[in-house]
Amino acid sequence: MDRELAHHWQPDSWQSCTAGQQPLYPDAAVVARILAEIRNLPPLVTWGEVDKLRRQLAEAARGERFVLQGGDCAESFDDCTAEPIANKLKILLQMSLVLVHGLKKRVIRVGRMAGQYAKPRSADHETRNGVMLPSYRGDLINRSGFTAAERTADPGLMLRGYEHAALTLNYVRALVDGGFADLHHPEYWDLDFVRNSPLEAEYRRIVQSIVDSLNFMETISGQPLSESSRIDFFTSHEGLHLLYEQAQTGLVAETGRWYNLAAHFPWIGMRTADVNGAHVEYFRGIANPVAVKAGLGMTADQLLELCGVLNPHNEPGRLTFIHRFGAKHIADRLPPLVEAVSRAGKQVLWICDPMHGNTEATTSGVKTRRFENILAELETAFTLHEELGSILGGVHFELTGDDVTECTGGARGLTDTDLERAYKSQVDPRLNYEQALEMAMRIVARKMRR
């Protein structure tokens, strides 16, 4: 599509483009009724919060802040309960504490939560024992059980997705506003099983150092440090299901711009990053900061085209590229992209996702990721950006605050046989609380070595 000649952007402009990864609903009238109901519900986030995040992301691109983005591969409605939500917030707080202490930068905390309910699939159908059914596409679209009824796309799940996102975000905000993130009391963040971790002593040392420094500064100044008692916390998800995203997109009179108020920071996945496709068309019109996953299939020319369409005014903080190549390929594939963007003078934030390119299967067919490969890609990313005169401004992890066994390796040395103990993900394997905390410590240790 020639966007210079295209009609003025509207939230439904994408419907004139080819849209991949979209569900096929059996009853259009029901879909229309559900979408109308969602449009009339209150927004999940505010445009002021969205603009605040965009300013902070611009600072991260300049090396003044660091982005920590993490959460489930695909959220489940069943996990919309107090403990799993609090545990995800806790591990992100713990990781950010380590990063602030070691990197000496403010950390932007972005959860893959309160909306990560849809997942792209490599095939439209799945076959088991000779029976072929539609693939499970996440709780926003259909159900994981292998029956025709469960795998049929259900528009009512969009409304349930909104409700679960609202409940999750409400609880996170209540925790944050209630002092849960107060640096004076980091013991609130403790996960019970951290006490059994080989990393416990080092983590406790970092916590005590920060508390001591905080107390010293408040003693000198004679007043509390206001930013020590609460934090900013932003939400993100893949903006995959375009009807759902469109229903939560509105024009803000104060700015004259359209905002997706389902999340602060939506992103486009690898499978839907076609510059002429529906997802890019939708994303180009919203005022949110947006991200695009960039992997093995992405060329420098495609990246520059995306810059032109998604950030035509070269606005700082508007566009992020989240690169995901795998430990084996990053050294060859990342430099041409960074060099092309730099030569073109494009304002982008670079974030490393060391998870997706390192997915593999065990001999028994279980999908997993190895800690050493995740770490290797991450360390290589830091080195390459430094050598290229660029800035790696953040990291993107699939993780959980629960005691799962889905990725091997780490301080406790999980093996393939350990995966059987607590493998809970229905889609992709996640770092558990201990592996995630260790990853933050390894990032800091790398800085200390240099």
What proportion of the residues is helical, as a percent range?
Answer: 25-40%
Overall shape: it is globular
Query: Count the helices. How many?
Result: 12
Q: Give me the Rg, rounded.
A: 21 Å
Which structural class best describes the helix and strand composition? alpha/beta
The end-to-end distance, rounded to whole angstroms, is 47 Å
- SSE order, as H and E? HHEHEEEHHHEHEEEHEHEHEEEHEH
> Segments where pLDDT lies below 50 for 5+ residues?
1-7
CATH class: Alpha Beta
Q: β content, as a range?
A: 5-15%
Q: What is the H level of CATH, i.e. the homologous superfamily?
A: Aldolase class I
> How would you state the average pLDDT, rounded?
91
Task: Report the major sheet.
Answer: 8 strands, parallel, barrel
CATH topology: TIM Barrel
Number of domains: 1
Assigned CATH architecture? Alpha-Beta Barrel
- Record the strand order, biggest sheet: 1-2-5-8-9-10-11-14
How many runs of DSSP E, i.e. beta strands?
14
Please provide a written account of the structure.
This protein is α/β, with parallel strands linked by helices. The protein has a single domain (13-449), classed as TIM Barrel (Alpha-Beta Barrel). Helices cover 38% and strands 15% of the residues. α3 (82-103) packs parallel to α12 (433-449) and α11 runs parallel beside α12. It is globular, with a radius of gyration of 21 Å. It starts with 27 loop residues before the first helix and ends with a helix. Residues 1-7 have low confidence and may be disordered.
